[in-house]
Design a protein that fits this description.
Helix content is 42%, strand content 13%. The chain has helices at residues 40-52, 120-128, 139-150, 152-184, 189-196, 200-215; strands at residues 17-20, 26-32, 67-73, 84-87, 102-108. With 218 residues, the protein is of the alpha/beta class.
């Protein structure tokens, strides 16, 4: 009998929205303008990251929570003209549901319908495409956009958020470089710190995480 020992590599990813509700369900909501970043494998990857961080090594996999990946796309990714696509899983050649409690939903941001027939979801899609908050249907969203665009304090806060996102993105890129260099194993901690522009303590922390993941691989 042949046994395979698998190792989960340290990876980082920036999720647009990651939330947990009061019942423990986990949600990843992505807003994508580029169809290439809304592919089924992208959804699969994000879903796997939520699973990998939901239970500890040795815990029963039945403890995995319900997860939802909700992909809001600027275009109609599936091209069927529907406002929402729920990806359901079934056993082949039957109507038996294959329910692993991992759910996938695509929201068509390009969907348009008559104003007097819009559902709450369709109103939300409409509002996502609005530049002027006065054209929005949902007061909560309109008021927030108005605050961030027109209120001096809101504009300042939006600038701070953008600066934080840029800094977070740059830091993630540096971490990715450091991890690759550590896995390559040909450079000292000091040289990796210099190449990635990260503190030596951070490099040592990443090195320890990689070793820990290797020791706990199954």
């Amino acid at each position: 009998m042949l046994f395979c020992k698998a190792k989960i590599k340290e990876r980082t990813v920036r999720l647009d929205i990651y939330a947990v509700d009061s019942t423990g369900k986990k949600y990843n909501i992505e807003i994508e303008r580029n169809d290439k970043r809304a592919t089924p494998k992208r959804v699969r990857y994000n879903s796997s990251l939520m699973d990998a961080n939901s239970i500890l090594p040795g815990e029963d996999v039945e403890l995995l929570p319900k997860t939802y990946v909700i992909m809001i796309t600027e275009n109609d990714y599936w091209g069927e003209g529907k406002p929402i696509y729920s990806i359901d899983k079934y056993v082949s050649d039957s109507e038996l549901a294959y329910d692993d409690e991992s759910y996938i939903i695509y929201v068509n941001g390009a969907f348009k319908a008559e104003a007097d027939t819009l559902s709450p979801l369709e109103k939300l899609i409409h509002d996502f495409n609005c530049i002027d908050p006065n054209d929005m249907y949902l007061d909560v969203l309109a008021n927030r956009v108005q605050y961030l665009k027109s209120n001096e304090e809101g504009v300042k806060k939006m600038g701070q958020v953008m600066d934080e996102l840029i800094e977070e993105y740059v830091n993630e890129e540096r971490v990715e470089i450091a991890i690759k260099l550590l896995e390559y194993g040909e450079m000292s901690v000091e040289k990796i710190a210099k190449s990635s522009k990260l503190p030596i303590d951070k490099i040592k922390e990443l090195e320890a995480d990689i070793l820990h993941a290797s020791d706990n691989a199954f």
